[in-house]
Design goal:
This protein has about 725 residues and is mainly beta. The chain contains four helices and 39 strands.
């Protein structure tokens, strides 16, 4: 039986004890001396609508979604708790525009938005600052997760064309909560959320989140553990100046589960179980990922119209990757599994893989008039740096096995020495940005802005020799027009550009080791946002997004060369509804139609074909129904659908479409006078077998089975 981590337990108990002691003392303070109360829902008894009114991801401060000329979706803490989400792959089930893209069990996850995979270097953010995406960001201390679908060059500079994810951390508040949880696989989970406001004017605040998880995976041999702790502190220095500090640390250790590949390059593996781990060698070690994310923000209000803030952050992730990796067949002669299910096994080791993101920004926000025209101006400076330090590792062929073998072959580990780590990448960005929202009258708004970036990026080999020196400066514009025929409705059209990083050639390419240069992506979008009521909003967006097509181009001699040729054009329609349909029924509906085709690639078989891992249609329907006859009981359910997805670029092989149904309930009551919430969720109710992910990683395609039926039970006690 696995033990609970001393680190997690000590942090949980110590934080609870300290906060309880402090609150007992401060409880005697006069209410007249307190600052305005902060409204926090700490219990599970929530009437919170699924409708979100504001988000910071599309601008540089919280903005009403109704006045934001972009497609934004927000999943709040209530939904995260009710769905018992632990990973980003759990959260994205609420947005049909987002899917998994190489997200193995036990490894860090990546996602795909509007048909483009996100870049871990810049697309993941906490409180608006970039973090190393090679981590599974913890959700225990997150107030909400924001998704910006589409180009985010104004917000982040060199960015993936797909979009951006921003995690917003919880702020200090009077809260004391403990959660205990388990699942049908035997996992165990404990988490604490404790915080307080103190001082004569309640000008100080602190909030601590801590969690430990013993992970019993549905995949045999992929168990592990996770420890997490975070601290959020605030100080109202004066009536006009405040300081926020956030820090979080997570260590996760779990055996990673490799994906399948096409048999002979043409056939999907048949009758495979999602519980099977290919080649579970005894010498394979868990993947260990230690991550630290820190940020601080100083806000100051100069007067009623002008304010600004300074913000700095650091994110560091260290990955130790030791795995028996199934890949290709024929002793290294093919990048696919053999037609009969044979595959090669590699001893892959890459320890001390370190990624670090540093960023600082200064932002000034103000309002002023020029005649009858109102301006909302944002200007700022941004500096960021990303470094990658890692060794080349080893990847040694140690034998072979078969996916249908009931008794996996025991193989000997490699004895090769692991080379020393070295600086692989040093990427620096400097930027000046601005936006001006011009209110022409009560109905028309014109938004103009842009970001001037200076990119300096250098790569090195193991000898320290410079292998690439990229220097580029560019202005990335963003323009939008908003029309509000009535106060609760907005129609918009927008244009945006961003600079996207080039991707790397794979082992099978003749130019292996090279990375393609950055390219410019363009997006046109038009949409409508309508608040049907104060608790229900409807959205629709049409978009056309294009960028350079990057792929391994077949040569006349049968070899492949990784090139940047042609254009990939993704265009589609996104529909959404979120909020209370009736007093008792809360809904979230998301539908995405996405056509993702490449043109002028130089390879006729790939032109006009749907991109890998992008379904034409994906939808997500979530419902929460309060049972009137039994107060405190809510019934929950969701229906997720994905159309078929291509596995290879000529669309000759596809994974089938699938429907997944999930159910749950939440029961809120009181025990000992304290709010207590019971949650039960059953995911994949009908135990559907399906391929959840057919994405690419480092130029190779992989297939990942979806999770089988899993039941999860939790109890939340607020004291």
């Amino acid at each position: 039986m696995k033990r609970f981590s001393p680190l997690a337990l000590s942090l949980t108990l110590a934080s609870a004890a300290s906060v309880l002691t402090a609150t007992s003392t401060w409880a005697q303070e006069s209410a007249s001396e307190a600052l305005p109360a902060i409204n926090v829902s700490a219990d599970g008894v929530s009437n919170d609508s699924a409708r979100k009114r504001t988000a910071s991801i599309a601008s540089f401060d919280d903005s009403p979604l109704l006045d934001t000329p972009t497609s934004v979706n927000v999943v709040n803490a209530t939904q995260i708790k009710d769905q018992q989400a632990r990973l980003l792959s759990d959260v994205i089930k609420n947005d049909a525009s987002i899917g998994e893209n190489y997200a193995p069990v036990g490894y860090y996850e990546n996602i795909i938005m509007r048909g483009f995979a996100l870049d871990p270097a810049s697309a993941y953010r906490i409180n608006g600052l970039s973090v190393a995406g090679e981590q599974n960001v913890a959700l225990e201390n997150k107030e909400q997760v924001e998704f910006l679908n589409g180009l985010a060059g104004l917000q982040g500079g060199v960015m993936s064309a797909g979009g951006m994810v921003n995690y917003v951390t919880k702020r200090p508040a009077e809260v004391r909560s403990v959660v205990l949880s388990t699942d049908s696989n035997g996992s165990r989970y404990v988490a604490a959320d404790v915080g307080t406001l103190f001082g004569e004017q309640k000008q100080f605040g602190i909030r601590i989140n801590a969690a430990h998880e013993d992970i019993h995976s549905y995949v045999n041999g992929s168990d592990g553990y996770r420890d997490f702790a975070s601290l959020a502190a605030s100080w109202a220095i004066s009536a006009k100046t405040s300081l926020q500090i956030n820090g979080e640390y997570q260590q996760k250790s779990q055996k990673s589960v490799a994906g399948y590949q096409l048999l002979g390059g043409t056939t999907l593996p048949a009758t495979v179980s999602p519980s099977t781990m290919l080649t579970p060698q005894t010498w394979a070690q868990p993947v260990k990922i230690n991550s630290t994310n820190l940020d601080a923000r100083l806000d100051h209000e100069f007067n009623d119209d002008w304010r600004g803030y300074l913000q700095i952050g650091r994110s560091r992730t260290v990955i130790d990757d030791y795995i028996a990796f199934p890949y290709g067949s024929g002793g290294g002669s093919s990048p696919y599994f053999a037609a009969n299910g044979d595959f090669d096994v590699y001893d892959f080791r890459s320890p001390d893989d370190t990624r670090r993101n540093d960023e600082g920004k200064a932002v000034l926000l103000g309002k002023f008039d020029t005649g009858s025209i109102r301006h909302d101006l944002t200007i700022g400076l941004d500096m960021s740096r990303r470094v990658v330090d890692k060794s080349d590792g080893i990847s040694v062929l140690v034998g072979s096995d078969n996916i249908y073998n009931p008794n996996p072959v025991a193989l000997n580990a490699a004895t090769d020495a692991i080379p020393a780590a070295y600086r692989n990448l040093d990427s620096r960005q400097q930027a000046i940005f601005f936006t001006d929202k011009i209110s022409l009258n009560d109905r028309w708004q014109l938004v103009g802005g842009g970001r001037e970036i200076w990119l300096k990026e250098q790569t090195y080999d193991s000898t320290g020799a410079l292998t690439r020196d990229t220097r580029r400066n560019m202005f990335l514009p963003q323009l939008a027009l908003i029309f509000k025929p009535q106060t609760n409705m907005s129609l918009y059209g927008s244009y945006a550009e961003t600079l996207t990083s080039g991707t790397a050639a794979s082992l099978w390419d003749t130019n292996y080791g090279s990375t393609l240069p950055p390219s410019v992506a363009h997006q046109l979008e038009t949409g409508i946002k309508y608040d049907l009521s104060k608790d229900l909003s409807l959205t629709a967006a049409l978009f056309r997004l294009s960028k350079a097509y990057e792929y391994p181009q077949p040569n006349a001699d049968g070899t492949l060369t990784y090139v940047q040729q042609g254009t990939q054009v993704n265009q589609g329609l996104e529909l959404g509804a979120a909020g209370k349909l009736t007093r008792q029924l809360n809904i979230g509906v998301s539908v995405a139609f996405t056509q993702a085709h490449a043109h002028d690639t130089g390879t006729a078989a790939y032109d006009g074909k749907q991109a890998i891992n992008v379904p034409l249609l994906r939808s997500a329907v979530n419902a929460d129904y309060a049972v009137a006859s039994l107060p405190g009981l809510n019934l929950q359910g969701s229906w997720l659908y994905s159309g078929r997805k291509s596995v290879i670029r000529d669309d000759s092989v596809e994974v089938p479409a699938y429907h997944i149904f999930n159910v749950g309930l939440r029961y809120a009551t009181r025990i000992g006078g304290h709010p207590t919430t019971l949650r039960l969720n059953i995911d994949n109710l009908f135990d559907k077998r399906y391929w959840k992910d057919s994405g690419e990683y480092l130029g190779d395609s992989y297939l990942f089975p979806g999770a089988p039926r899993v039941a999860r039970l939790s109890v939340q006690y607020d004291f």
